[in-house]
Amino acid sequence: MSELQADVISIIENVLKMPAGILNIDSGMGITDGWTSLMMMEIIMAVENKFSIQFQPDEIYDMVNVRDILLSLKNHGVYNAN
Amino acid sequence: MNTKSLVFAGDSHTGVFYPFYDEVMAIYDRPGFTIDSFSRGQSQVYLDFVQFMKSLNRNGMTLVLCLSEVDIRVHFWRDMPILAARGMSFNAFIAKKISVFINRVSVFANELHISNIILWGAPASQLTTENHTESLPATGDNQTRNILTHLFNLEMMRQISASTGVLRFSTPFYGMVNEDFITNPQWLRDGVHLKFELRSYCMSLLFPLIQLQSMVTFSSQFDFFMSFVFELNVLEKSVNETGYLHFFRTWVKDINSSNLILNNHYGNFCLVEKLSDLQGINKYYELVLRRSL
After folding, report:
1. Residues of B with Cβ-Cβ distance to A57 under 8 angstroms
2. What is the pLDDT of residues B4-22, one digit of tens each?
3. CB pairs under 8 A, 24+ apart, for B96-101?
4. DSSP state letters, A56-67
5. What is the pTM assigned to this prediction?
6. B contacts of A29 (beta carbons < 8 Å)
7. What is the chain A residue with the closest CA to B79?
8. Span B28-45, pLDDT tens digits
9. Do A41 and B87 touch (CB under 8 A)?
């Protein structure tokens, strides 16, 4: 697991109030317990705050899991954890 | 007409068709069965539904998918203002939502060889002052939610009318709201779901679609609403009037009680997750949708 992936997962664990060790790159909305569409928007905003970026509406619309978040971060030039 | 070829599916909003239970093939009622069940990949809710449908004789079947509050109003009003503040118009959001849904349902229809699927639109929303629950939440006030439903209906009609696929659309919505999009509660049996007595009216809207005579049907009151234009507004509300409602989410100005925030030309708003979070505050300023006058 890359540092960036670990960082993103840590953010999500914090938003969802989950213990460590449950989430993986395929965890996401509708698949992971407690990861509802309401939580998805909170996760997105927490990620934006962490990496000081703002996702475009189309990016937000299409995000459903950890993999999508990581891909969007890379599209914004974020390859490493802060 | 052979009603034994009919299957109704959705959440509790399939309920208006319960009196027909012995006259149709099946009524599939599952909590959380929504647009997102189709649009967000292979969720367990979607997979369970596919398994159920595969157990039925689908030759000559008409499937009626019943949409609901959660489909249109809870999610839409949570996300739309945030995305609008970032440049995605309300119409663009709704159009994309419907396009993805229609495509996914069309794939489902093709895979299961179902030749006729009717999308049954959500009824008008429960009134703002009704009790909301964890399974029956609301986001936005009654008029905002109903205007969203209307915008959804317009776009759905447009996309289905322009398609050559197996999907058709009807809705009981028009006639349930007045010119300000306030719900007439006389249509609802529990403040949320259509009265059972309306089943014949609902079936009269569905018959032309079941018999493949039309792509879209709606009541004659639709013509009255067609040309309305809408705008965001900020209204002063009194908690003494609405009550400290649980499970009622709404965008409130200059309050900081959750992680969902947006900034638009009206100011800074936070998505308050329940009005009961505003204990100690009498007046609040709410972001709403209203008709442009």
Report:
1. 83, 86-88, 92-93
2. 899 999 988 889 998 888 8
3. B96/A61, B97/B35, B97/B39, B98/B152, B98/B155, B98/B156, B98/B159, B99/B159, B100/B39, B101/B35, B101/B38, B101/B39
4. -HHHHHH--BHH
5. 0.90
6. 40
7. A41
8. 998 778 777 776 667 788
9. no
